[in-house]
Amino acid sequence: MFIILLIMGLVTIFPIAFMFMNSFKSQAEIVDSPLALPKEITFKYISHAMTEIKLVPSILLTVLITVLAVGFIVILSSSAAWMMVRVKSKFAMFVLLLFTSSMLIPFQAVMYPLIAMFENVGLKNVPGLIIMYGGFGLAMSTFLYHGFMKSVPASLEEAAIIDGASVFQVYFKIVMPLVKPTTVTVIILNAMWVWNDYLLPFLVLGDSENKTLTLALYYAKMKDGPYSVPWDLMFPAVLITVIPVIILFLFLQKQIIKGMADGAVK
């Protein structure tokens, strides 16, 4: 079992190591010896990639989209799940089933009607992209919150209301602190998805001036034509793109697993 796990670990880590090694090489060095270690550790290729591909504006735009979309998902999914848990009715159960069933619909089945609809209302842009991410992220996030919020005692909320707390105070000061593990899980899973997504930004933004990181990488790849790839730009740019996600996941992987498990069994 140890040998099997070791092999699986090596297979998993190889693409990251391969990318890291080639991020410090020239185009000729990458083509001649892609599996060799770099002759010297220099950050000039990373600096060149950031300047040539204009990664700083793309990073800022991607951060903005990710933060707003994830915040939108957390607020709406947690409040919807809270109401569905507390309102004991057939309608609340129907709404939960509606949220859950929407996870079964593949994005590819609705992407062209969705893009056409948003274009007709003037939202085929960054704000529209944020709204789309918020809508697509609601189903799974609401499902996770709903499972965890069943364990939150209603007596705590009743006591807060007796003490004069409003609905918003109960939500922000009582409920949300108690579901922190699920909130962390929802934030990380959705942030990784939005940060790494390529298809939706490509359909919405295309070759516009505003490009997310994935779009910037795609058009940088096509810069010298479809048959020539500037590897000395691509490897450093991909390294810059994936490092934040890897660091985030490594530090918060326990909270992700805990939040998903709690939401599934409670």
Short overview:
Keywords: Cell membrane, Membrane, Transmembrane, Transmembrane helix, Transport. The protein is mainly α.
Task: Please render the helix and strand layout as text.
Layout: H1 2-22, H2 27-32, H3 44-52, H4 55-86, H5 90-102, H6 107-120, H7 126-149, H8 154-162, H9 167-178, H10 180-196, H11 199-204, H12 213-221, H13 231-265
Describe this structure in words.
- The longest helix has 35 residues.
- By secondary structure, the protein is mostly helical.
- The mean pLDDT is 84.
- Helix 7 packs parallel to helix 13.
- It starts with a helix and ends with a helix.
- It contains 13 helices and no strands.
